[in-house]
Structures are given as structure tokens and as C-alpha cells.
Write a structure and sequence with these properties.
Two copies of one chain form a homodimer. Chain A has eight helices and twelve strands. The longest helix of chain A is centred in the last third of the chain and has 25 residues. Chains A and B meet through helix 4, strand 8 and helix 6 of A and helix 4, strand 8 and helix 6 of B.
Chain lengths: ~300, ~300
């Protein structure tokens, strides 16, 4: 339990850490339609619905994010036993969103553009709801490099396909490059949680974010492929030398946008295969299902520790 | 009805137009797991399931693609009345896939990476199923430039955020640029169908494909925005001058990949708003729902004509 002094300190920290947008236009909008969530400031009371959110966990698959809210809700005693968690974005099939107490769980689909749309609308939602002291964690799947399948990687730096910690996008026809910094302290806290759990191998390493799953990650089994096995291996080895331990498709814009809006953020992904050994994901369904629970267990444990210490 | 001579000609054309992959490795695989479809060559008889496919329609939203298969099935008399169309990819929630006779309807999520994963696995599926004479059409939603909302755009060329007909990706750390050609004859055929229908405004124009919905399309209402209304308008006007009539997020890689694999392809998108007038999609739900049926009606009409002439 926290002392009264600690609680006051936390409240002050919270006040200083209201979610900030990098866009002065939003404050002047009469109505803000969060189109891909099927929510709007004129039809939904966002402060009442989301004002208490402190942890947002995001991941590609809607069913996995529903499983996560059930898991944290029951493990952390956040709701009534057997309580259902309806999809808050039921008016659209672009994303799914679930809530239990201070935890929000949102799906983001696959790839940088898909997660970027979601993050724009999520940050506006948190802003309109006047949330403060929010931590955002991506819990995902990835391909590992030189790791036993099922290992979990906590991302130190998200790097691009040339191993640079940068996210490049085109704004009004011009290239804009943003940094992909993640919160170092949060990496340490999550790493300590993994050590406490001792349930599976967890490493801290760089995560390569690509715009394609097949050619973009050097796979030999896409519909298109114009390089050899040797060239693929050389590329993956170069990535490993640059500190890359896993490859996925969302971390760069996630890190860049969270950092731009002052949100504490982390990326925790399980590796479904070792890309040095192959390209296809062939493990049995039950094995993959268990792997996918690992980031959930680690982040659930982290949230429990935070709530106990609050 | 076609004459016997025409039918023979069609069969010969079909033989010459088996779906081709640009990857010699696939023919040598013992098993090919189409991971994001939840299908595999060792667990599913792909030629029996998909061998008769001639039209593949793809779109972002799973529910819209389910609505499309219901629509073409009933309009074209492809199935028994009231027949259900189960999701062929029910084992995963990454994509949804439905089939009625020679028509396959597949969702692809939002953005270039999401549709690219789907297309890699779709083309491998069509190859394993030994399909021939396949036409692929994206039916989607978009933002218009200088068009009344609800107008339908048939894409002449897919262009990037600098209005070039190119798709750039990174393969083994190196930039690769591919052309984004679409089938000119198919554009004409679809345009004729629209003239025959006379149900809504349809234009042929260039389609700009971006990697982001907010900053990437010059919106002023994202979580981040570092430009003015005047700069936005100048950019959209420059796009209009370059022949761009709508903006979406998948056409470039769709055109590049279909072209690389020799598939006849088209992009037909409805515009949900005029971006010269604003950024937010504020039309009532029923209006937007009717707009979204327009590409379905046009492409349904096109498929009917093709089947009647076959």
C-alpha cells in the first residue's frame, strides 16, 4: 500500500502527465469523430467512459486482445467474476476495444499504416477523456533471430530495415524522419518482471520493423522472391550483428508516435519461429496459442505490480 | 450465350493464363502454410476448394466482404437461395474469405503491409489451386478530391504521395521500385458497366496511395499535425492537377503485385467525402453504408456481364 505522501506525489505526477497531442487544431473542434473506432465526442461521454485508463495494451489480433482483457480482468480481480467485456468499437469492424478497470485493450491489425490510424484515434480518445499517467504497451508476435521459438523480446530500440532507429514517413509529399525512442526505465521494469516470473526466456534487444512480411523480411516463400538463401542469411546475420533479436511490423510508428505525444511506451513480442532456421510458421496451433499468451502474462504481471504499488 | 468456337478460344486463353508466381522456391516446397489464412497445402485440398475461381474481389472490411458475397451470390444466382457463406479463414482473425461459385471475396485490413501479406498468400493459393484466367478487383473506400461524396473512382494509375506511378519497398535493406500499372482494357470495361448502370457518378482517374491516413493524407485532425490549412490545400490541389481524384491506402502494392504475377487487376473505390471540403467523415451511417455498396453494385454488374458472355 502506498502512503498518503506517495499518493499525493502520484497525483501531482499524473497532473503533469495528461495526454498531450501535437496538434492545436483538436482543441478547437466542435465535434471529433473517431471514425475507425465508431466513437465521437458528440455521441459518447469519453471522460466518463475512459477517464480512469492508466494502461493501454495493443496488439494485432482482435481475438487476442479480447483474450487479454479476460486474462487481466480475472488475474488482477478488476471486474466481477464471469463479467463479459463487450467490444466498445462494435459499431465498426476496423478495430476491437475492451476495457477492465484502468486497463484498455485495443487491436490494431497488421502493419504500420493500420496501427498508425488506431494510434491517432487512441491518443485523441485519451486526450478528450482527460487521461493522465498513461502507459502504452504493444503485446505482439514476431519472428526471432537466433532465439529459441517462444522467447519473448522486450524492445530496446525499434530499427528500420537498414537497422537505423528511425521512422520515415511522407507528409505533404516530403520525407519526415522521426526517432523511435522507447522508455528505458520501462524496459528495465518489464525486464525485472520477467526475471520475477521465470516462466519463459525473455531478452532485451532491438526490434526490426518492416513494411512487408515476405520480401521485406527476407522470406524465401512469398509469391515474389528475387534473392537467394545465402543473401537472405547474410541479411539476417547483419541484423543480428546490429543487435536485432526479432522482426515485426508495427514497432517503429508505435515508438515514434508515443514518444511524440509524451506517452511512456514499450514493445513486448513473443517470437513464433527462429528466422535463421526457416520462414514458415509450422508449430502446432496449441503451441503457438501458448506462445501468444507469454507477452500477456508478462504485461499482466507488470500491471499487477504497478497497481499494488500505486 | 457463347458459341462453341468462343468457348474453345476462352479455354485456350485460360490455359495460357494460369496464375504465375515470381518465386521458383514455391514449386519445391513439400508443404506451404498460408499462415494468415489458416490454410495449408497439406491440410486443405486447394484445387478442389478454389480451382474454379475466376474473380477475386478484395476490400478492407471483413463485414463488407461478407456482404459482397451475399450480394453477388443472390444477384447472380450463384448459390441456393438463403445459402450461408461460411468464412473459409475461420481458423484465424487476420483475414476473412468467402466464396460463391467462381467469385472469391477476401478482406485485407487497412494499409499496404496488411494487403501485401494477404496478396502473397492469395496468389500462392490461386497457384496451388491451379486457377487460370483470374481477374482481381479491389472494391474499397477512399477520400475524394473535387468529387461529390458517393462518387465512384475507377483507378487509371495508382500513384504515390509525390504523384509518381511507383511503389517503393525495401528488400534485404535495399530500395526496390516497382511500377503500378493496371489493366487499361479492364478500366474501359468497368467504365462501360458504370455507364450502363447509371446509378451514381463514376469517373476514371488517378488514385493516390499513402502509408498514413492522417498526416500522410494532409489531414488537419490527427493526433499530430505540423502544417497549416493553406499548405494542406496546396498539396491536395497539386494532387488534383496531377490527375488524382481519390486517396486510399492499398492500391499501389495491389497494382504492383498483380502486375508482377500477370493478373488482370482493377481498383474501384467510392469516395466517402471531398477532402477539399474537410477531413472528418461525418455523413450519417445509412448514407455511408449505401455509398459502400456502390463499388459492389458496379463490380457485381461487371461479373454478371462476364459470366453471361463466357
Amino acid at each position: 500500500m502506498a502512503s498518503a505522501g506517495n499518493q499525493t506525489k502520484e497525483l501531482e505526477k499524473d497532473k503533469a502527465s495528461f495526454v498531450q497531442l501535437c496538434n492545436p487544431n483538436i482543441a478547437t473542434l466542435k465535434e471529433d469523430v473517431l471514425y475507425h473506432f465508431g466513437l465521437s465526442t458528440s455521441t459518447h461521454d469519453l471522460p466518463a467512459m475512459f477517464g480512469d485508463v492508466k494502461f493501454v495494451c495493443v496488439g494485432g489480433s482482435p481475438s487476442r486482445m479480447k483474450a487479454f482483457i479476460k486474462y487481466v480482468s480475472s488475474e488482477l480481480g478488476l471486474g466481477r467474476p464471469g463479467e463479459d467485456h463487450p467490444n466498445i468499437c462494435a459499431g465498426t469492424d476496423r478495430y476491437a476495444m475492451f476495457k477492465a478497470g484502468p486497463v484498455l485493450s485495443v487491436s490494431h491489425g497488421m502493419g504500420v499504416p493500420s496501427i498508425a490510424i488506431m494510434l491517432h484515434e487512441l491518443f485523441k480518445l485519451l486526450y478528450h477523456a482527460r487521461c493522465s499517467g498513461v502507459t502504452v504497451i504493444r503485446i505482439g508476435t514476431s519472428g526471432g533471430i537466433g532465439l529459441e521459438p517462444g522467447s519473448v523480446v522486450i524492445t530496446r530500440q525499434s530499427v528500420d530495415a537498414r537497422f537505423k532507429p528511425e521512422f520515415e514517413q511522407v507528409v505533404l509529399g516530403k520525407r519526415v524522419v522521426r526517432r523511435t525512442d522507447l522508455d528505458e526505465q520501462l524496459v528495465r521494469e518489464l525486464s525485472e518482471c520477467a526475471e520475477g516470473l521465470r516462466e519463459f526466456t525473455t531478452v532485451v534487444g532491438n526490434t526490426m520493423c518492416t513494411l512487408d512480411f515476405y520480401e521485406g523480411q527476407g522470406r524465401l516463400d512469398g509469391a515474389l522472391c528475387c534473392y537467394t538463401e545465402a543473401e537472405k542469411q547474410a541479411y539476417l546475420q547483419a541484423a543480428h550483428t546490429a543487435g536485432v533479436r526479432n522482426i515485426e511490423m508495427e514497432s517503429s510508428v508505435f515508438a515514434a508516435m508515443c514518444s511524440a505525444c509524451g506517452l511512456r511506451a514499450a514493445v513486448v513480442c513473443v517470437t513464433l519461429l527462429d528466422r535463421l532456421e526457416g520462414d514458415q510458421i509450422r508449430s502446432p496451433h496449441e503451441v503457438l496459442a501458448e506462445y501468444q499468451q507469454r507477452p500477456q502474462r508478462l504485461v499482466g504481471h507488470f500491471i499487477r505490480k504497478c497497481l499494488a504499488g500505486a
